[in-house]
């Protein structure tokens, strides 16, 4: 009897050991056959000082010492990890994205160009020829070690900003919607005044914050801007007006370049608003922009960007930095940006980083103009934008019917003209009427239901065959034409007043303080 009892006990213990071992191996071994994302495990953590130029194959099993959950009990199986927090307890999506980013192999110049050339053709494409031709050798000489250092600097900065953000007692109060501008000299103040007067004429009540460097703006200019603030008496909606606040950008001082691009990213980052429309002071609105914050494109993405005239080129170092193939689309133009801080705080940190290190990055981002698109691509952000390409507007020149452009017209997501970005008019004198003709690509509409940001066919081919040349002598002016061998009908010239939303703009511009 005693022997039988002992045999039963041994058998029971053996059976329990087998079951325990099976459960343990089942959890451990199945992990090695499933993608990590399928069971909630983060990619392997790569030290920031790792050599990013090498190919890193992330392990498919948990790191050594990481607890493996026994799903039948909900307790860590490995005794050495009992009582310790799970490694990914505070692991954010940004952490995981940055770990993946730092692991992407760095291609040599030749490798990157070879992989991107097919994606970004150049025949009949209006890329920045001056920028590309003038920098090809410089870009070719950028070593892979420099790309790795740039990536590591980006990762370290974003991780630092995330830690600081977590440690702060962040307010749950919504900063609301508002407009941000940067005005650092008297001429910019005049343009800001004109822009605000346009907004007031549309009964727009969005508050405005105008940033400047500490060394800029006289007391007279500051008072001039503050006087633009129109605050109602509080008696109902009719009493509400537009509040204008003048602010000093923190952490940056004025540079010595032709343009102080780097104030823009900092101003957007430091504004009190949660939902932001950034406007260059020479980008004038054609109607109240509040509806842009309420459209389906905004609701889906929280980020609206607008295109420039030039398309991406395969030789640009941005593709080596991002570890991505060239995108066959128009580069970004930052005269107007719509962004949600709540949804894209990390993007604002990255844009701010590019601004702080503008000597390194702005040379291949066209200043700040393409830094927002670059940041969105690095962080895997989707954006929307206008429903049609921009156009070149300006004076009518009898001896040059293709030229006379000094203004970039930008549309809203439905394709109606929305922004009159008069970015060259301040650099020269033009005959009146200042706005008489519009030169645009005949094929300028994105596919139905899509906008800028979509490169699916046929969107990758809009504007094909059309080029825009900027002349610097005797003054900055643009000319739109077709490439040799392409049909002349690819460019359309419209009368300014043929669009209802543009009628009367010039008269208002002068009445509201526009100076030419």
CATH superfamily of the largest domain: Spore Coat Polysaccharide Biosynthesis Protein SpsA, Chain A
Overall pLDDT: 83
Shape: globular
Uncertain runs with pLDDT below 50, 5 residues or more?
15-87, 232-239
The biggest sheet, with number of strands, parallel, antiparallel or mixed sense and barrel status, is:
6 strands, mixed
Helical residues, percent: 25-40%
Per the CATH scheme, the topology name of the largest domain is: Spore Coat Polysaccharide Biosynthesis Protein SpsA, Chain A
CATH architecture of the largest domain: Alpha-Beta Complex
Distance between the termini: 112 Å
Assign the CATH class of the largest domain.
Alpha Beta
Number of structural units classed as domains: 3
Strand order of the largest sheet: 5-4-3-6-9-8
List how many beta strands DSSP finds.
16
- What portion of residues belong to β-strands? 15-25%
What can be said about this structure in brief?
With about 525 residues, the chain is of the alpha+beta class. It has helices at about 1-30, 95-105, 110-115, 130-140, 145-165, 185-200, 220-225, 265-270, 295-300, 320, 340-355, 360, 370-380, 505-510; strands at about 70, 75, 175-180, 210, 245-250, 275-280, 285, 305-310, 330-340, 390-395, 405-410, 415-420, 435-440, 465-470, 475-480, 490-495.
What can you tell me about this protein's structure?
The protein is of the alpha+beta class and 516 residues long. It folds into 3 domains: 2-99, no CATH class; 165-378, Spore Coat Polysaccharide Biosynthesis Protein SpsA, Chain A; 391-511, no CATH class. The chain is 32% helix and 17% strand. It has 14 helices and 16 strands. The protein has helices at residues 2-31, 93-103, 109-117, 129-140, 144-167, 186-201, 219-226, 263-270, 296-301, 318-322, 341-356, 358-361, 371-378, 505-511, and strands at residues 69-70, 75-76, 177-182, 208-212, 244-248, 275-279, 283-285, 303-311, 330-340, 391-394, 405-411, 417-421, 437-441, 466-471, 477-482, 491-495. The strands form 4 sheets. Strands 5-4-3-6-9-8 form a 6-stranded mixed beta sheet, with helices on both faces. A 6-stranded antiparallel beta sheet has the order 7-12-11-10-13-16. The chain is globular and about 55 Å long.
């Amino acid at each position: 009897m005693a022997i039988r009892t002992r045999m039963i006990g041994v058998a029971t213990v053996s059976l329990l050991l087998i079951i325990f071992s099976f459960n343990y191996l089942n959890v451990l071994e199945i992990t090695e056959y499933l993608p990590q994302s399928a069971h909630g495990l983060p990619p392997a953590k790569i030290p920031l000082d790792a050599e990013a130029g090498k190919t890193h194959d992330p392990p498919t099993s948990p790191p050594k010492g990481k607890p493996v959950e026994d799903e039948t009990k909900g307790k860590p199986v490995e005794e050495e990890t009992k009582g310790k927090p799970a490694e990914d307890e505070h692991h954010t999506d940004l952490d995981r994205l940055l770990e993946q980013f730092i692991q992407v192999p760095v291609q040599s110049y030749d490798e990157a160009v070879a992989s991107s050339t097919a994606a970004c053709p150049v025949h009949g494409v209006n890329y920045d020829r001056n920028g590309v031709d003038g920098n090809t050798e410089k870009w070719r000489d950028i070593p892979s070690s420099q790309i790795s250092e740039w990536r590591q600097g980006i990762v370290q900065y974003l991780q630092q900003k995330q830690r600081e953000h977590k440690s702060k007692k962040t307010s749950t109060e919504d900063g609301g919607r508002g407009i941000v501008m940067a005005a650092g000299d008297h001429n910019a103040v005049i343009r800001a005044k004109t822009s605000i007067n346009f907004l007031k004429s549309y009964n727009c009540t969005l508050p405005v914050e105008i940033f400047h460097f500490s060394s800029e703006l006289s007391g007279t200019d500051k008072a001039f801007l503050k006087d633009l603030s129109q605050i109602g008496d509080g008696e109902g909606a009719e009493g509400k007006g537009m509040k204008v606040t003048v602010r000093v950008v923190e952490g940056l001082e004025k540079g010595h370049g032709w343009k102080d691009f780097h104030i823009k990213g900092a101003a957007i980052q430091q504004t009190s608003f949660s939902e932001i429309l950034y406007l260059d002071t020479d980008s004038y609105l054609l109607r109240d922009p509040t509806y842009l914050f309420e459209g389906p494109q905004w609701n889906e993405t929280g980020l609206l960007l607008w295109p420039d005239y030039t398309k991406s080129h395969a030789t640009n170092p941005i593709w080596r930095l991002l570890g991505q193939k060239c995108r066959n689309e128009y580069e970004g133009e930052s005269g107007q940006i719509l962004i949600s801080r709540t949804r894209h705080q990390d993007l604002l940190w990255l844009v701010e980083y590019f601004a702080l290190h503008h000597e390194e990055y702005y040379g291949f981002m066209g200043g700040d103009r393409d830094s927002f698109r670059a940041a969105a691509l690095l962080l895997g952000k989707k954006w929307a934008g206008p429903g049609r390409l921009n156009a070149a507007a300006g004076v009518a020149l009898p001896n040059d019917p293709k030229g006379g452009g000094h203004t970039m017209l930008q549309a809203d997501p439905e394709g109606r003209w929305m922004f009159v970005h008069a970015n060259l008019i301040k650099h020269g004198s033009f005959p009146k009427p200042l706005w008489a003709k519009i030169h645009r690509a005949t094929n300028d509409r994105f596919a139905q239901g899509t906008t800028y940001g979509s490169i699916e066919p046929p969107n990758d081919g809009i504007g094909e065959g059309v080029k825009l040349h900027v002349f610097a002598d005797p003054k900055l002016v643009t000319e739109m034409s077709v490439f040799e061998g392409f049909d002349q009908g690819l460019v359309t010239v419209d009368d300014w007043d043929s669009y209802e939303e543009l009628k009367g703009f010039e008269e208002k511009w002068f009445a509201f303080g526009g100076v030419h």
